[in-house]
Write a structure and sequence with these properties.
The chain contains 2 helices and 8 strands; from the N terminus they run E-H-E-E-E-E-H-E-E-E. By secondary structure, the protein is α+β, with helices and mostly antiparallel strands. It has one domain: 2,3-Dihydroxybiphenyl 1,2-Dioxygenase, domain 1 (Roll). It has an 8-stranded mixed sheet, covered by helices on one side.
Amino acid sequence: MNRFHVHLNVADLDASIRFYRELFAAEPTVRKSDYAKWMLDDPRINFAISCTGRAPGLDHLGLQVDSSEALAALGQRLQAAGGTVIPEEGALCCYAHSDKAWTEDPQGTRWETFHTLGEATTYYQEGGVCATGGSACVSAPSDMPAKAETATSCCAAQSRCC
């Protein structure tokens, strides 16, 4: 079953965790020094917040799927919708290893579709570089590198806000 995903950038992680803990009546499923995530069943959502130096507000929306086949099917639907779809295999982001595809809607909202393969011990690849070229960090899918070999420092830890 798919799960809706929302990722917000926050200025104060502790205050935000307190707020969302009360709103969701649940502790975060994942809690790190710069990140927290709730995997809720009611509503069925993967809600994440991070404090990595980016401007507070909506980072991206997404859909989390349970299998590689579901990710491929969702990718086909994104292609049919007419947006540029950028695949990311073996991404290391948000303390997880995932296969992903990125696009944006007509208003420019970034959408991530992903299948999580396992946990990771860091927010991004060691050395502060996105494992897959930083597609979560660019302004449009057309700016996303197509391969991990073109990684840049777009996801490098910036000034700590937490």
